[in-house]
Specification:
The chain is of the alpha/beta class and 283 residues long. The protein has a single domain, classed as Rossmann fold (3-Layer(aba) Sandwich), CATH 3.40.50.1820. Helices cover 42% and strands 17% of the residues. The chain contains 14 helices and eight strands. It has an eight-stranded mixed sheet, with helices on both faces. Strand 3, helix 1 and strand 4 form a beta-alpha-beta unit. Helix 2 crosses helix 3. The model has no long low-confidence stretch (mean pLDDT 96). Keywords: Hydrolase.
Length: 283
């Protein structure tokens, strides 16, 4: 793993990367599975022109592997809130991809130090079309990862080969995740505790769903983005995600598509991803 900065919270020590003017508005980046904070490497220099950018390894993963959680996005968000409080970060923009987007969704419903939030290419547990997503046989790994112990037994020592199954089909052939970057991600989950932490995030989906269904309205402005090419691979329209988030009580919602991207938006098209976010932020 690459070196980074550290912040200690009651649960342990989180590692993050920071770039940009410390006095600029804060932008906090949360990665998904099976990635680490390194997934933002191409977007950070672009965003750092106008923001103080902080990209975290999620609790339990990569250089934050010493922090244990129950996998629920509520607990992960609470730990990140403690970290941001310790760093004096307030009035921040929170951006989460994949499972990081699920964490961001919980965060804005429980903490008031976020001015705006962006969710990149995920479905929120308990929010329509969640039930349809669970029924999609192409997403078999949701159930597999939730199985106790079995994923660790089969994946340990084969992280790179297994993760490749999720990288290669979910990027355009002309914009793959480079092999050396895939190895970086495999290394981030190579420790037994880190691999379990990643799978625990899936094991917590049922609890996440129940929790999210209980949430009330949220006025924090929210941007929901998906990859243009990824939407062409599914029968679920962007409007369905918009309607689901609206029905769940997100009162200030915008949606959009990032061109030339499938799922890993910040790596496949970092400039297009930032352009959509910057428009939302009016910068």
């Amino acid at each position: 793993m690459t070196s980074g900065l550290e912040i200690t919270v009651p649960a342990g020590t989180l590692t993050y990367t920071e770039e940009g003017d410390p006095g600029a508005p804060a932008l906090v980046l949360l990665h998904g599975w099976p990635q680490s904070r390194r997934c933002w490497d191409l977007l950070i220099p672009i965003a750092a022109d106008t923001h103080r950018v902080l990209a975290f390894d999620l609790p339990g993963v990569g250089d934050s592997a010493g922090v244990r959680t129950d996998g629920t996005k509520h607990q992960i968000a609470a730990i990140l809130h403690e970290a941001l409080t310790g760093l004096g970060v307030t009035d921040t923009v929170l951006i989460g991809h994949d499972i990081g987007g699920m964490v961001a969704y919980d965060y804005v419903h429980h903490h008031d130090d976020v001015s705006r939030a962006v969710i990149l290419d995920t479905v929120v547990p308990g929010v329509d079309p969640w039930d349809r997503v669970l029924a999609n046989p192409r997403l078999w790994h949701f159930a597999f990862h939730a199985t106790p112990d079995l994923p660790e037994t089969l994946v340990t020592g084969r992280e790179a080969a297994y993760f490749g199954h999720f990288f290669d089909p979910l990027t355009r052939p002309d914009r793959p995740i480079p092999a050396e970057r895939q190895r970086v991600y495999a290394d981030a989950y190579a420790a037994p505790a880190a691999l379990t932490a990643g799978f625990d995030m899936y094991r917590a989906f049922a609890a996440d769903s129940d929790h999210n269904r209980s949430l009330g309205a949220c006025a924090t402005p929210l941007l929901y983005l998906r990859g243009e090419h990824g939407m062409r691979m599914t029968t679920t329209s962007l409007g369905v995600y918009r309607d689901g988030l609206t029905a769940a009580g997100n009162q200030n919602l915008a949606v959009g598509l990032v061109p030339d991207a499938v799922h890993y938006l910040a790596e496949e098209n970092p400039h297009g991803t930032w352009q959509a976010i910057a428009h939302f932020l009016d910068v």
